[in-house]
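Worked Example 4.2. Consider the chain below.
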Amino acid sequence: MASSIADADVGRAAAGSHGPAAWTRALPVLAAWARRLGGVAATLAGLLALTFFIGRVMPVDPVLSIVGPDADRSTYEQVRATLGLDQPLPVQFGRYLASLAEGDLGRSVLSGNPVREDIARVFPATVELATLAIVLGTALGVPMGVWAAARRGRAVDHAVRLISLIGHSTPVFWFAMMGLLLFYAVLGWAGGSGRVALEFDGLVAPRTGLLLVDAAWAGEWDVWRSALRHILLPAAILALHAMACIARMTRSFMLAQLGQEYILAARVKGLGERAVLWRHAFRNCRVQLLTIVALTYGGLLEGAVLVETVFGWPGFGQYLTSSLMLGDMNAVMGSVLLVGLLFIGLNLLSDLLYQVFDPRTRSGRD
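Applying the procedure from the previous section yields the following structure tokens:
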């Protein structure tokens, strides 16, 4: 009898440990994520409203882009009414939000296709370009920043700072034009405009939209080599800009860590310089670098328009620029919404990775 009572007490204690106490520990985390999601919703709503109303006061008339400057007044008014531009701005915005809630981004004036289909067609090209660029930029920028911090004031440090300054301050379109002139026109090492040579265009069915992946998947290695030859130069130019930012921030974070007492203690214990740098100092920098790399990647996805223009790269940047020039506000709104979602998603991803790599951030406090 006594043993059964004791067993019952143990069972209640175990249930209690997984009951109210568990909820008490989970509530701060849930509240923190609720605040984050509320901030995401408010940010997206503000972004959509601001873009919509700015787009409606732009001097570019989307109706003229459709009917042309020689159309008569009745045709102009008919198209304007069809687009809903004869309604008050709040009504237009409400209709746009209602369509957006159904997953409808509208129809592009530029192509005549649904904006969702256009973005799905052009965005993978930019993803492929930006992903290769951020991989190259991170692979080069992080070691450069670590070595510069470890040799502060020496020749290596000065060289890294100079390269970072040049990469960050020189306009990316200038690098693009000089690179195209040197490596394509003079040396013939790089491919020309577009994603692949003309004789290979359309030979690979788009499965993922990433041409290197699709060509390898289909076993079309001639197409794969041509695609690699075309992407390396624009990706390297974008990587130079990313590398400059990542190297500079890595150096700054490493210098802050190398001045801490635990680094002095590690050196006093006789640890080698490589272990001190990578196992101790860099380990405490990687959490901060996650945010830098994530935001840099978002900037490459959104800001590759100049490189895409110079290289004739059929990506998201060119689509957004052409839409702005023609006043195609459905395409602009859809593109801005995608960019906003990208940056918000990358920020949330970096928050999750923070919690993975830094246990101190798991308490749920902001």
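The domain at 115-326 is CATH 1.10.3720.10 (MetI-like fold). The chain has a mean pLDDT of 80. Compare this with Example 4.1 before moving on.
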